[in-house]
Design brief:
The protein is an alpha/beta fold. The chain folds into 3 domains: 29-223 and 273-324, Alpha-Beta Complex (2-enoyl-CoA Hydratase, Chain A, domain 1), CATH 3.90.226.10; 225-272, no CATH class; 342-371, no CATH class. The protein is built from 15 helices and 15 strands. The strands form 4 sheets. Strands 1-2-3-5-7-10 form a 6-stranded mixed beta sheet, sandwiched between helices. It has a 4-stranded mixed beta sheet with strand order 4-6-8-9. A 3-stranded antiparallel beta sheet has the order 12-11-15, covered by helices on one side.
């Protein structure tokens, strides 16, 4: 079959709308890198790459600033438009956190009490989640540490999660003055089932990587702790498959003397991501050996179920989150931001509920009462 009979432009067009101005190397920033796809023997495959979008703010547990949100948007678009990129790896710097959500210092000092500005910020946040869900490549979330709050939300927007087994996962909104309507309320039930999703969403409990793998939130938990030169599973978590007293124990925290011993082992061990990155390379190679357009159609067809709920709620959530910056978010983010002064990172919830029960208006007297006195 003969093709291209007619004159045809041969110059390859650039479809990327961003330059490199949204990327950096010094924290806080987003780093964008391309790494060669490697075969099972570790040999680089010529001309084919993974794009790594890296949150780089480890001193603040890779919480994203406004400028970092722009970097994530730019990174996913850049990867989408790059013909040589097979898939995107979304990860972060360091070994403590993938992401703990929005930067609470920025929230407290700039956005709290300023709903119009926060709604403008939420347009960017919505664009970040859209950028992940609309990415024209499969997206792997490489979880190098805790994935909490907004970090959990952007992580769940990804297609596949491969995690350090030291990581924890969970929400923080109702405990710190917000609601997880940046994706968690739209995505969790697809992964966990409605009741588990509800409890995980509202309890603000932190669940282990092994528990999340068992329940279906993530694909795999990989050992990263080296103790005496050997890899070992997270000693803080029960990793044997058994049932005790009628309840599944696998993935739950150890207690008592075992917990004391485990914490000491964590202090003495070192974190090594070799096995995690081998699993990432294995996944990338598997994706490379598929028809790219058939692969992306399959990815998009699964994503659209998550997108349906996300698209229904993201606009109204933006307005509610903005208005909330004048009340509970103002309390929650300022409590977290002033914990060095007050000795705690949450408000006095009992006092707050008591004042509301009395019909107390939201004024400075209420704010002072629930934030508590500063330490001497």
């Amino acid at each position: 079959m003969e093709l291209n009979k007619w004159p045809r432009q041969t110059d390859i067009k650039d479809h990327d709308i961003f330059g490199d101005e949204h990327f950096g190397t010094e924290a806080p920033c987003v780093v964008y890198e391309k790494k060669p796809i490697v075969d099972p023997n570790g040999n680089a495959i010529e001309g084919l790459y993974s794009a790594w979008v890296i949150l780089n703010n480890p001193a603040q547990y890779n919480s994203y600033t406004t400028e970092m949100v722009k970097g994530v948007i730019a990174g996913f678009h850049k990867a989408s438009m790059d013909r040589s990129v097979v898939a995107v790896v979304f990860t972060a710097a360091g070994d403590k956190a993938f992401c703990t959500g929005g930067n609470t210092k920025e929230y407290a000092e700039y956005y709290s009490g300023n709903p119009s500005e926060y709604m403008a910020y939420m347009d960017l946040f919505n664009g970040m989640v859209d950028g992940i869900l609309n990415c024209k490549k499969p997206v792997i979330c490489r979880v190098n540490g805790m994935r909490v709050a907004g970090g959990q939300e952007i992580g769940m927007a990804c297609d596949v999660t491969i995690s350090s087994d030291l990581a924890i996962f969970g929400q923080a909104g109702p405990k710190h003055g917000s609601a997880p309507v940046g994706g968690s309320t739209d995505f969790l039930h697809w992964y966990l089932g409605m009741e588990q999703a509800m409890w995980n969403c509202i309890s603000c409990e932190m669940w282990s990587a092994y528990k999340m793998a068992r329940l279906g939130l993530i694909s795999k938990a990989v050992p990263v702790l080296k103790f005496s030169g050997e890899f070992m599973r997270n000693p803080l978590i029960v990793t044997d498959q058994y049932v005790a007293d009628g309840e599944i124990v696998y993935g739950e925290s150890v207690t008592g003397d075992a917990a004391v011993k485990a914490k000491q082992m964590l202090k003495e061990g070192e974190v090594d991501f070799t096995l995690l990155d081998k699993e990432i390379d294995k996944t990338l190679y598997k994706l490379t050996n598929l028809f790219p357009n058939c692969l992306q159609m399959s990815v998009d067809s699964v994503r659209v179920k998550k997108k349906y709920y996300w698209d229904q709620a993201k606009i109204s959530s933006r307005h509610w989150l903005g208005a909330n910056m004048m009340s509970e978010a103002y309390l929650g983010f300022n409590a977290f931001n002033t914990k060095k002064l007050t000795g705690k990172d949450t408000i006095d919830f009992i006092k707050y509920r008591q004042l509301l029960a009395e019909g107390k208006p939201f004024d400075q007297e209420l704010i002072d009462a629930v934030l508590g006195p500063r330490k001497e």
